[in-house]
């Protein structure tokens, strides 16, 4: 992912995505960043990208399983159907839980920068 041309670095993550407007079944979070996220739905999902409709996503993060879901307003940016399932990229517009959302991304950034195996000299 680091060699992709992105506005913000994406972090592989897991979680459940609920958006009944798009899909009656919950999706799985694949990665997340300050500017967006990638979701995998287990069925085909049809969305008109030209309409630029906003959708409310409720994200239950695997690392924060006991907490309330994050609520994030997003616009789909791309859709790809793969073997009767759907991958979808979303641009994050704003979040009613903006402070919690940004704090979570900061945690992901910090955990990636942690040096688990410091150099031995």
Please give a handful of descriptors for the protein shown.
six-stranded antiparallel beta barrel; 121 residues; 1 helix; mainly beta
Q: SSE layout and pairings?
A:
Blueprint: E1 11-18, E2 27-32, E3 36-41, E4 55-61, E5 70-82, E6 85-94, H1 98-113
Antiparallel strand pairs: 1-2, 1-4, 2-3, 3-6, 4-5, 5-6
Walkthrough of the structure:
The chain is mostly beta strands and 121 residues long. 13% of the residues lie in helices and 41% in strands. It is built from one helix and six strands; from the N terminus they run E-E-E-E-E-E-H. It has one helix spanning 98-113; strands at 11-18, 27-32, 36-41, 55-61, 70-82, 85-94. Strands 1-2-3-6-5-4 form a six-stranded antiparallel barrel. Strand 5 (70-82) and strand 6 form a beta hairpin. It is globular, with a radius of gyration of 15 Å. The mean pLDDT is 88.
In short:
This protein has 121 residues and is mainly beta. The protein contains one helix and six strands. The longest helix is centred in the C-terminal third of the chain and has 16 residues, at 98-113.
Percentage of β-strand residues: 35-45%
The tally of helices reads: 1
What is the strand arrangement across the widest sheet? 1-2-3-6-5-4
Shape: globular
Uncertain segments are none
Task: Output mean pLDDT.
Answer: 88
- How many strands, which pairing sense, and closed or not: the largest β-sheet? 6 strands, antiparallel, barrel
Distance between the termini: 30 Å
Secondary-structure element string: EEEEEEH
How many strand elements?
Answer: 6
Structural class per helix/strand content? mainly beta
Fraction of residues in helix: 10-25%
Give the radius of gyration: 15 Å
